[in-house]
Amino acid sequence: MKTETLDTLATAGSRTTGGGAVVGFLGWLASSQAIGLLGICIALMGTLVNWYYRREASRRATASRQEEAAEHALRMELMRKTGIPLRPVHDEPDTSPTDMGVL
User: Fold this and answer.
1) Within 13 Å of residue 8, how many CA atoms lie on the same side as its CB?
2) Of 48 and 26, which is predicted with more confidence?
3) Are 86 and 78 in contact (CB under 8 A)?
4) Whose C-alpha in 27, 35, 77, 99 is 20 to 30 A from the C-alpha of 54?
5) How many CB atoms within 10 Å of residue 34?
6) Model pTM greater than 0.90?
């Protein structure tokens, strides 16, 4: 046989193998087993995403509590040194004449 003929047959065989693999994969995908495995994979990915963002929220909450504790410690130290009671800005009463604040 000629070299060109052998190359042509090898190419045809390669394409047939690729086509068979694609058809086999599509057939497996159409089975109920594949749908179940796909559902499990999606559930696992959702669980991992949920775990990551909850961990980040917990980390941020911990950092916020540490900042508030540090601010409280500084405020207490300043009050002990000066003897003047200090309150956080958000705890000061509203002294505006209306219930809607300053107009």
Assistant:
1) 5
2) 48
3) yes
4) 35
5) 14
6) no
